[in-house]
Automatic annotation (TrEMBL):
<keyword id="KW-0012">Acyltransferase</keyword>
<dbReference type="Pfam" id="PF00198">
    <property type="entry name" value="2-oxoacid_dh"/>
</dbReference>
<dbReference type="GO" id="GO:0033512">
    <property type="term" value="P:L-lysine catabolic process to acetyl-CoA via saccharopine"/>
</dbReference>
<comment type="subunit">
    <text>Forms a 24-polypeptide structural core with octahedral symmetry. Part of the 2-oxoglutarate dehydrogenase (OGDH) complex composed of E1 (2-oxoglutarate dehydrogenase), E2 (dihydrolipoamide succinyltransferase) and E3 (dihydrolipoamide dehydrogenase); the complex contains multiple copies of the three enzymatic components (E1, E2 and E3).</text>
</comment>
<dbReference type="InterPro" id="IPR001078">
    <property type="entry name" value="2-oxoacid_DH_actylTfrase"/>
</dbReference>
<dbReference type="GO" id="GO:0045252">
    <property type="term" value="C:oxoglutarate dehydrogenase complex"/>
</dbReference>
<dbReference type="InterPro" id="IPR050537">
    <property type="entry name" value="2-oxoacid_dehydrogenase"/>
</dbReference>
<keyword id="KW-0816">Tricarboxylic acid cycle</keyword>
<protein>
    <recommendedName>
        <fullName>Dihydrolipoyllysine-residue succinyltransferase component of 2-oxoglutarate dehydrogenase complex</fullName>
        <ecNumber>2.3.1.61</ecNumber>
    </recommendedName>
</protein>
<feature type="domain" description="Lipoyl-binding">
    <location>
        <begin position="3"/>
        <end position="78"/>
    </location>
</feature>
<dbReference type="GO" id="GO:0005829">
    <property type="term" value="C:cytosol"/>
</dbReference>
<dbReference type="InterPro" id="IPR006255">
    <property type="entry name" value="SucB"/>
</dbReference>
<dbReference type="InterPro" id="IPR000089">
    <property type="entry name" value="Biotin_lipoyl"/>
</dbReference>
<comment type="similarity">
    <text>Belongs to the 2-oxoacid dehydrogenase family.</text>
</comment>
<dbReference type="GO" id="GO:0004149">
    <property type="term" value="F:dihydrolipoyllysine-residue succinyltransferase activity"/>
</dbReference>
<keyword id="KW-0808">Transferase</keyword>
<dbReference type="InterPro" id="IPR011053">
    <property type="entry name" value="Single_hybrid_motif"/>
</dbReference>
Length: 412
């Protein structure tokens, strides 16, 4: 019997372990080559574990929620068992047509090899099957109908179970008191534990301070309305607000390089490139994929990068490289309705800018009160290397670029 150990593969540079988030197969299941058998998440990405051989899972060595080191065995697949099974079912169907005569004895009907295979796989009781073929012979179509009915029954039972569970949850407060209150304990995912640790480390290690400003979004909103359809028609992507803020942030960072720097022991590392992290909320938690060399990208290229990275983030398909090495981050709590917040720095970066909800507010313009679409923006920064003057100046420059977007084109 040939056994193949399935190990946790390399998850990328600086990632030494992962957590089994889900088993897609159980012991005894037959798996095909490259078929997904488990899902693993690290502190940065989630990956699928696929079978590297065709065979039968004989041992599962790690449970869901277990931490696994790279190279550690998670399960064992026996390829001989599958080959033997395939031989019995596929290669020797003619032989089974003779040797499995007990199936035919039950019904007193001749069965084809394909029918025998389906009956064996789905454990069908032939006494309950009415043949539609000549002399009431059971055909492949008869077996398919039985299988479909079995699936339909399973679906109905599953729906009934869900309905029953939902009904049991919809109880009156008095009934809840009588039955007792419950607490459900669920272990944090690897990603959630890593997020918690990194954010706490950021607070402990950096001297985080926040400064605020507000931006009049009228001009940029009108610009989007005017060119939105033409932009999408030409570039195949919608023109959003984020590309303007990325452009504005990069322009401000180029004038204030300390905001784009980071602390390394007793040294300050200045970057001559601008890799901008854009925070994306997923079902597993917040991730920050990186837009590389944003200073060289056009509006459409930035929007395309944001769209592609956001899609991959929500599907859990981001690579380690797409999550590592940013020099500055932008987060937009406004998509959830946040009016104001103080985001935490994403280490080892030294600053993060927060966008918020656009809200119509009365403001004074040229001695008159007008209703304008306003947004609060915030910069959280590491006060160890960034002074208040530099932080305030940075936000003021971003504000000026957004309120007068032509500055981004003229570089003024």
């Amino acid at each position: 019997m040939k056994e193949t150990n399935i190990v946790l593969p390399s998850l990328g540079e600086s990632v030494s372990s992962g957590t089994i988030s889900k088993w897609c197969k159980k012991e005894g299941d037959i798996v095909e080559l490259d078929e997904k058998i488990a899902e693993v998440e690290s502190d940065k990405v989630g990956i699928d574990i696929n079978a590297n051989v065709h065979g039968k899972i004989t041992k599962i060595l790690k449970n869901e929620g277990d931490d696994v080191e790279v190279g550690e065995i998670i399960c064992v697949i026996s390829s001989d068992v599958a080959q033997k099974s395939d031989t019995n079912i596929d290669d020797n169907e003619d032989k089974k047509d003779v040797n499995l005569s007990h199936l035919e004895t039950v019904t007193n009907k001749k069965l084809s090899p394909s029918v025998i295979k389906m009956v064996t796989e789905h454990k069908i009781n032939l006494e309950d099957v009415n043949g539609s073929g000549k002399n009431n012979r059971i055909t492949k179509g008869d077996i398919i109908n039985v299988i479909n009915n079995m699936k339909l029954t399973d679906d109905v039972q599953t729906q009934q179970l869900k309905t029953s569970q939902l009904t049991s949850q919809m109880v009156s407060p008095l009934a809840a008191i009588k039955s007792g209150r419950m607490i459900e304990r669920i272990r944090m995912t690897k990603l959630r534990r890593t997020i918690a640790q990194r954010l706490k480390n950021s607070q402990n290690n950096a001297a985080i301070l926040s400064t605020f400003n507000e931006v009049d979004m009228f001009n940029i909103t009108e610009l989007r309305k005017k060119y939105r359809e033409e932009f999408e028609k030409k570039h195949g992507i919608k023109l959003g607000f984020m590309s303007f803020f990325v452009k504005a942030a990069v322009a401000a960072l180029q004038e204030l390089p300390i905001i784009n720097a980071q602390v390394d022991g007793s040294d300050i590392l200045y970057h001559n490139y601008y890799d901008i992290g854009v925070a994306v909320s997923t079902n597993s938690g917040l991730v920050v994929p990186i837009i590389r060399n944003a200073e060289h990208l056009s509006f459409s290229e930035i929007e395309m990068e944001i769209s592609q990275l956001g899609k991959k983030a929500k599907e859990g398909n981001l690579s380690i490289n797409e999550l590592s090495g940013g020099t500055f981050s932008i987060t937009n709590g406004g998509v959830f309705g946040s009016l104001l917040s103080t985001p935490i720095i994403n280490p080892p970066q030294s600053a993060i800018m927060g966008m918020h909800k656009i809200q119509d507010r009365p403001v004074v313009i040229n001695s008159t009160i007008q209703i304008r679409p306003m947004m609060y923006i915030v910069l959280s920064y590491d006060h160890r290397i960034i002074d208040g003057k530099e932080a305030v100046t940075f936000l003021t420059k971003v504000k000026n670029y957004i309120e007068s977007p032509e500055r981004l084109l003229l570089s003024i």
